[in-house]
């Protein structure tokens, strides 16, 4: 048996624009650009930029197929010096075809023009984009690499990571089509591991379907070994380093060594999670060794001598671990937090399932309410408060208090509850009326003092701004609820 | 008995079953062979843990007699840069596979040595020739491979080899070569190898040149490694404040031709296991690292080693 060697990422590439999943807004913009470009109403070129595997190239091809355009493609594995680009793309971009059809020029990976090999490449592209009579699409991971000059002549369309739920639906469709028996749980874990990269998810699915027997349905356990570089690893290491499971330096170090990350990356993770819950002395101790560790990283860079990595690793892991040990040695009965949530140093791009940083209308509504209520800028509310509201809504009493303070309506509550249960939302709405506004003012201010001592600087600024407006008991009660958000 | 062949080559695994200590990965690779299909792969992990061995023996099982025609190994660090990707790989990738195979395999060793630009060129080549070609990229850290390539590959993380894996292979080779190795010798080999099979096999072969009855001392001597007990002695004496005693032991080690560099590396390994509070350990590790740095920057390693020992003595006084 030879096995089909067609890659699924090619086989299941969307043929039509509406088959391109996720990124509806980008697709809409692209369609509009394609219409305008024919009527000479828009810029001749479009830049599609976004992370790997989010459908940029697929969208370009789907567009061409849908419009019946011819495609001419160049990418980074072809030599792209100015001469080559002009000789290939140049004539295509100015001459019309015999049949009078439009030619779409796709320059894949346009941010990867190599400095010396592709000498003059960027300039040539800019030149062609300016002169072309035919539409041009450039795809890129990083639009900032492409130069302001070029961007000025292009319509810039942003693609985003694809949500895990969407990835899951695509995987389900493909595995049904390919007649692969696989559990939903397995597909979900594949979808999550892909981190918004649909192509890698499809590749993983194909790899599994090749390696596992087709007789039985594939379960989640079957894919436990060896797949994509899973974040779980780093979280496991962090929980050892941060002493969630005792203070064994050796296991912390061997966990760190077996991690598929360079010390340069590890230190960022550790630093980001080395938080404020230490007393001054332990905190300084930990930071001191992080700083020492960083010195060794610098020595590796300067001397290109990788032996110093071992000292960097030891110092970052053991420095933080011993800080925790110091802390606990001093405080008897200090409660160790078993369950920890670790933050990624690049958290900005790390989206949780269902959490959508692109502000939908509902988030905007909520942000407006919070902004009005606590007199903070709406953008601040949108990015620093709204994303955390669902966490507080897990606690029904808090949910009711917040609902009362912000005067939320049922759909808004339901949204914060994850749209699952309209009944529960109604219940909270009712409870909100029952929340007593008469609580001791002293207790409130006492609480507020504690809260203030704990919050970060930004939050503190916010509370200070709000404080003078506090006048009566009810108001201050509500204020307390809001400060409790943080 | 011919001694002229290098054992790391002679005993390089020929089948996937022979690859030591990576059972989970090997299982998956074997099912690729059974299904006659393969995705692009990334093998990441430290040196000497079987990445190349796994790739080569998988190719052997895949193609049988025609494996050498359908499999090529390129070392990215030889001639790194964008040219090697654009030309060599393209040339190999664009011709049809030979015999009863539907694709060829390109093994790209040390792929993390490729520049970002070269990796970008590679990514589209991988997609374009996926009809006739599969890529296996080997690297120390998969995070050094750019995202778009990772997204096209299945990533396998090879772990540092365990004592059992090394012991089994060493026993096997010793048996074939008619050598006597005791449990102590294997422990010594495991200690000097640090999970690297190539180093372990080399140590065994070097010792075998001296005698067919191998003793642990020979292993340490040949690899210019101190016995762990000796290093521990230096550390303990220094921590007890016995400066001159510690220096005497150090002297013995240096006379054996063990470099200061090596002594520090071993001290660093052993400090982790000492029975002292974590806070103390970090402090010592920091001092060792600093001394190591000063040895590379300074001119006389003896001065730096003495200073390190003195600082250990002082550290013990503070308590």
Give the overall shape of chain A, derived from the CA principal axes: globular
Overall structural class of chain B, as computed from helix and strand content, comes to alpha/beta
Strand element count of chain B = 5
Number of extended strands of chain A: 5
The two chains with the largest interface, and their residue counts, are: A-B, 68 and 65 residues
Q: Give the overall average pLDDT of chain A.
A: 73
Strand content of chain B: 5-15%
| Euclidean distance between termini CA atoms of chain B | 59 Å
Q: What is the 3D form of chain B?
A: globular
Strand order of the largest sheet of chain B: 2-3-4-1-5
| Largest sheet: number of strands, sense, barrel closure of chain A | 5 strands, parallel
Class from helix and strand fractions of chain A: mainly alpha
Elements of chain A, N to C (H/E)? HHEHEHEHEHEHHHHHHHHHHHHHHHHH
| Largest sheet report of chain B | 5 strands, parallel
Write the SSE topology.
The complex is a heterodimer of chains A (486) and B (319).
Chain A: H1 8-11, H2 24-38, E1 45-49, H3 56-67, E2 70-74, H4 82-94, E3 103-107, H5 121-131, E4 136-140, H6 148-152, E5 154-158, H7 164-177, H8 184-193, H9 198-211, H10 231-241, H11 249-257, H12 263-273, H13 280-303, H14 308-330, H15 361-374, H16 378-385, H17 389-392, H18 396-406, H19 410-416, H20 422-434, H21 441-454, H22 457-466, H23 473-483
Parallel strand pairs in A: 1-4, 1-5, 2-3, 3-4
Chain B: H1 7-10, H2 23-35, E1 40-44, H3 51-63, H4 67-70, E2 71-75, H5 82-94, E3 104-109, H6 116-128, E4 133-139, H7 147-150, E5 153-157, H8 163-177, H9 183-193, H10 197-210, H11 216-222, H12 228-239, H13 243-255, H14 260-271, H15 278-297, H16 301-318
Parallel strand pairs in B: 1-4, 1-5, 2-3, 3-4
Helix pairs in contact in B: 2-3, 5-6, 8-10, 9-10, 9-11, 12-13, 12-14, 12-16, 14-15, 15-16
């Amino acid at each position: 048996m030879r096995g089909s060697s067609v890659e699924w990422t090619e086989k299941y590439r969307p043929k039509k624009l509406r088959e391109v999943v996720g990124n509806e807004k980008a697709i809409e913009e692209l369609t509009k650009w394609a219409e305008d470009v024919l009527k000479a109403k828009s810029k001749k070129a479009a830049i599609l930029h976004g992370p790997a595997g989010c459908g940029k190239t697929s969208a370009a091809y789907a567009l061409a197929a849908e419009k019946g355009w011819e495609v001419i493609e160049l990418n980074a594995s072809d030599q792209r010096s100015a001469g080559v680009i002009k000789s290939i793309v140049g004539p295509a971009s100015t001459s019309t075809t015999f049949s009078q059809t439009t030619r779409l020029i796709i320059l894949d990976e346009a941010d990867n023009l190599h400095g010396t090999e592709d000498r003059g490449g960027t300039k040539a592209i800019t030149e062609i984009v300016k002169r072309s009579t035919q539409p041009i699409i450039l795809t890129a991971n990083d639009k900032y690499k492409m130069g302001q000059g070029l961007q000025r002549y292009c319509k810039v369309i942003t693609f985003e990571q694809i949500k895990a739920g969407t990835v899951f639906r695509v995987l389900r469709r493909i595995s049904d089509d390919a007649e692969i028996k696989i559990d939903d749980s397995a597909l979900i874990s594949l979808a999550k591991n892909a981190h918004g990269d649909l192509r890698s998810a499809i590749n993983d699915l194909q790899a599994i379907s090749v390696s596992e027997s087709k007789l039985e349905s594939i379960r989640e356990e079957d894919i436990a070994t060896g797949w994509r570089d899973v974040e779980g690893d780093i979280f496991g290491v962090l929980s050892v380093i941060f002493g969630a499971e005792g203070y064994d330096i050796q296991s912390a170090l061997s966990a760190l060594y077996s991690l598929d990350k360079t010390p340069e990356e590890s230190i960022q993770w550790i630093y980001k999670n080395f938080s404020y819950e230490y007393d001054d002395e332990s905190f300084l101790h930990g930071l001191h060794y992080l700083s020492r560790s960083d010195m060794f990283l610098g020595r590796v860079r300067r001397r290109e001598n990788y032996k110093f990595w071992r000292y960097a690793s030891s110092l970052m892991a053991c420095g933080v671990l011993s800080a925790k040990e110091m802390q606990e040695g001093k405080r008897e009965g200090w409660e160790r937090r078993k369950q920890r949530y670790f933050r990624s140093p690049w958290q900005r791009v790390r989206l949780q399932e269902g959490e959508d940083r692109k502000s939908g209308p509902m988030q905007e509504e909520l942000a407006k309410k919070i902004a009005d209520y606590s007199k903070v800028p709406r953008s601040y509310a949108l990015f620093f408060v709204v994303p955390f509201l669902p966490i507080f809504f897990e606690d029904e009493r808090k949910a009711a208090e917040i609902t009362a303070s912000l005067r939320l309506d049922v759909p808004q509550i339901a949204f914060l509850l994850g749209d699952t249960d309209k009944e529960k939302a109604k219940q909270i709405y009712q409870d909100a009326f029952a929340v007593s506004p008469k609580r001791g003012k002293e207790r409130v201010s006492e609480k507020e003092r504690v809260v203030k001592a704990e919050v970060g600087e930004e939050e503190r600024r916010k509370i200070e701004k709000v404080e003078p407006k506090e006048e009566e008991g009810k108001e201050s009660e509500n204020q307390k609820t809001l400060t409790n958000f943080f | 008995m011919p001694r002229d062949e290098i054992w790391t080559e002679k005993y390089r695994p020929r089948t996937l079953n022979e690859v030591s200590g990576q059972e989970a990965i090997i299982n998956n690779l074997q099912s690729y062979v059974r299904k006659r299909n393969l995705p692009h792969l990334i093998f990441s992990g430290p040196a000497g843990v079987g990445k190349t061995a796994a790739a080569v023996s998988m190719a052997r099982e895949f193609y049988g007699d025609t494996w050498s025609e359908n499999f090529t190994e390129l070392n990215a660090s030889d001639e790194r840069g964008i040219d090697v990707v654009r030309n060599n790989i393209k040339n190999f990738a664009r011709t049809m596979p030979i015999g009863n195979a539907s694709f060829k395999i390109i093994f790209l060793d040390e792929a993390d040595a490729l520049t970002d630009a070269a990796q970008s060129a590679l990514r589209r080549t991988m997609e374009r020739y996926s009809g006739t070609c599969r890529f296996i990229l080997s690297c120390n850290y998969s995070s050094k491979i750019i995202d778009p390539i990772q997204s096209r590959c299945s990533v396998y993380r090879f772990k540092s080899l365990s004592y059992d894996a090394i012991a089994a292979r060493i026993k096997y080779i010793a048996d074939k070569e008619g050598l006597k190795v005791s449990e102590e010798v294997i422990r010594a080999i495991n200690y000097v190898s640090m999970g690297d099979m190539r180093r372990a096999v080399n140590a065994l072969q070097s010792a075998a040149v001296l005698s067919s009855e191998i003793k642990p001392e020979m292993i340490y001597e040949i690899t210019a490694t101190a016995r762990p007990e000796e290093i521990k002695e230096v550390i303990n004496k220094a921590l007890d404040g016995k400066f001159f005693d510690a220096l005497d032991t150090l002297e013995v080690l240096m006379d054996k031709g063990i470099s200061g560099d090596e002594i520090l590396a071993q001290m660093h390994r052993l400090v982790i296991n000492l029975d002292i509070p974590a806070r103390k350990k970090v402090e010592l590790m920091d001092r060792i690292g600093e001394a190591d740095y000063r040895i590379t920057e300074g001119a006389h390693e003896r001065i730096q080693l003495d200073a390190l020992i003195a600082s250990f003595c002082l550290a013990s006084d503070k308590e």
